[in-house]
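CO-FOLDING WORKSHEET

Operator: S.A.
Ligand of interest: biotin
Run index: 247
Mode: holo prediction, single chain
Checklist:
[x] sequence pasted
[x] SMILES validated
[ ] output reviewed
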Amino acid sequence: MSKNGLPSPFGLMRLGVVGSTNDEARRLASDGAAADLLVVMAESQSAGRGRRGRQWQSPAGNLHASVLIRLDRPLSQSAQIGFVAAVALAEALGDLVSDADFRCKWPNDLLCNGKKVAGMLLEAAGDGWLVLGFGVNVVQAPPPGEALYAAASLADFGWGGDAPGVLNAFCHRFGPWLARWRQDGFPPIREAWLGHARGVGEQAVVRLETETLTGIFAGLDEDGALILDQGEQGLRRVMAGDVFFPG
Ligand SMILES: O=C(O)CCCC[C@@H]1SC[C@@H]2NC(=O)N[C@@H]21
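OUTPUT RECEIVED:
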C-alpha cells in the first residue's frame, strides 16, 4: 500500500472544488507532470461532464476522480480501457455492497439493480496519456427526470461508506485488471465484461446521433463495439450511442 492509502503503485492528488477532474488530469499531462496511475480526486465538480457532452452532477460526498494512464498502445485501442474500468468497478462495488446486483451497461455505465450508479468518460490527454474519469453516486443520485436513465446512489442500497472507500476498492480491482490488459490484450477483458453485462441476448434500443436502431444485443466485437443483431438486416457494429433495454 502507498502512503496515500491506495494500493501501490497508485498515486493520489486530492483537490477541493474543481471544474472537472478530467481537465485537472489533462493539465497535468500537458505540463509534463503526469504519472502512470496518478488519481486526481475532487470533493466536488462545478462543471463535471459526461459522455456526449452531457452534464454530470457532482455534489460533495459522491466520487469524482480521474486516473492518468500511460498509453503504450495505439490510441485506437484506448476505448478498451473503459471496459477494463467497468469490470473493475463492478467487482469493487460488488465487494462493498452486499445483496445488490451490479451490471456493466454498454459502453461505460454501471447499474445497480437496474439503476445507473456510475459512469465513465475516457479522454486522450495527448502525448501518450489517457484520462479515465469516473463518477460514482455514493450518497446522492440526480433527481428523476434529470438523468437519461433511472439513477440511484449506493446509499439508496443501504451502503454507508464514503467516496475514498469506493476509490480504494476500485484501485484494488483496477490495478490487476489493467496489468492483465497490458499483458494479454482485450480478449480476457471482453470475456469478463460480458460476464458482468446487462442485456446480452436481449432486445435493445440503441440511440445514435441521427437514428435509433433496434435488435438483439449479441455481444461485443474485438474492439469493444456493440454488436446488434437486426435479424434479416444482419449484424450491425455500433461504436457510440446510448442503449436501452425495453424488456
Ligand atoms: O456517464 C457518463 O456520461 C460519464 C460520467 C463521467 C463523470 C466523471 S466524474 C469525474 C470525471 N470528471 C468529469 O468531468 N467527468 C468524469
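REVIEW:
The pocket of biotin is lined by residues 20-22, 45, 48-51, 54, 56, 64-66, 109, 119-121, 133-135 (CB under 6 Å).
Residues 11-196 form a domain with the BirA Bifunctional Protein; domain 2 fold (CATH 3.30.930.10).
[x] output reviewed
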